[in-house]
Write a structure and sequence with these properties.
Order of helices and strands: HHHHHEEEEHEEHEEH
Number of domains: 3
Helix content: 40-55%
Largest sheet: 5 strands, antiparallel
Strand content: 15-25%
Radius of gyration: 37 Å
Distance between the termini: 155 Å
Shape: rod-shaped
Number of strands: 8
């Protein structure tokens, strides 16, 4: 009886070996484990991303978490696959060499794409700007509308949508205008050379008075006679408007200039304009 059971068992084992069911069961087990690990990584990714977005809903750091998650998944898959082949007598070294050659070829072919991806990581890591910021990149400037893995889209003042590769942004000077706390007024008022001394001093006091009375202008302003130009005495104004919004800044700057022109005219102070005086020498032999 036992001999018959033993014979049937050996026959069953032979059938399993013939159909390689052991390898199939092992492969299925590895896939189940890999699936469970991937699901755990997805849960971790979602949790970390939610925390990042809760702190800043426009933060792009969540995209880095997604990239890292995909890299970890691919690495785990490759390790488990290589280990499975090595266990069953297959050469892993040739597989790794093949991946190396393939990766090199893909790297050369996708050089621009990879540069943009690393440029995206650089932008997110530096936190140089975010969606909604007004930035200047080279000859382009506008409001950032989106940041993806390949490019950044900005809406210019002409309402054109400009798409800039992230590799270019990563290697170019970026000016984040939105990050400023206030905007600067840096104006020159040129008065004529025949302006009396007391009028020149009055001009400086007029400009200081306007700045002092304007609530939207910070009180750390400076007004001074800068230089003697070719056709004018230049008075320089250096002040800051308490806003980062461009439209509000230009209106406050406009109010200041209009008020300065009005008060200068009331005080009888003339603005200079480019001019040249020519003196004609009288000839010695003239009768």
């Amino acid at each position: 009886m036992l001999a018959e059971i033993h014979a049937q068992f050996r026959e069953l084992v032979g059938i399993l070996k013939a159909f390689h069911l052991g390898i199939i069961f092992e492969l299925v087990a590895n896939l189940v484990i890999l699936y469970a690990i991937c699901k755990a990584l997805d849960v971790c990714e979602k949790s970390i991303s939610n925390r990042i977005l809760a702190a800043d809903k426009n933060s792009q750091a969540a995209k880095i978490v997604t990239i890292i998650n995909k890299i970890i998944k691919f690495t785990l898959f490759f390790i488990m696959f290589a280990g499975f082949l090595q266990t069953h007598g297959y050469s892993v070294s040739s597989l790794i060499a093949g991946f190396g050659i393939t990766g090199l070829a893909v790297g050369f072919a996708a050089n621009t794409t990879l540069s943009n991806v690393f440029g995206t990581i650089s932008i997110i890591a530096d936190k140089s700007f975010k969606i909604g910021d007004y930035i200047k990149v080279g000859v382009y400037e506008g409001t950032v509308e989106s940041i993806n893995m390949r490019s950044t889209k900005i809406r210019t003042l002409d309402n054109f949508l400009t798409v800039i590769p992230n590799s270019m942004i990563a290697n170019t000077e970026v000016v984040n205008v939105t990050a400023c706390h206030r905007r600067r007024i840096f104006e020159t008022f040129g008065v004529t050379y025949d302006t009396p001394n007391e009028k020149l001093e009055q001009a400086v006091k007029i400009l200081e008075g306007i700045l002092e009375q304007t609530q939207e202008i910070s009180k750390d302003y400076v007004v001074f006679v800068e230089t003697l130009d070719a056709s004018s005495i230049n008075i320089k104004v250096h002040a800051y408007v308490k806003t980062k919004v461009w439209a509000k800044y230009v209106k406050e700057r406009e109010k200041f200039i209009l008020e300065a022109v009005k008060r200068f005219r009331e005080a009888g102070i003339d603005f200079a304009f480019p001019s040249r005086t020519i003196y004609m020498a009288k000839g010695s032999d003239e009768n």
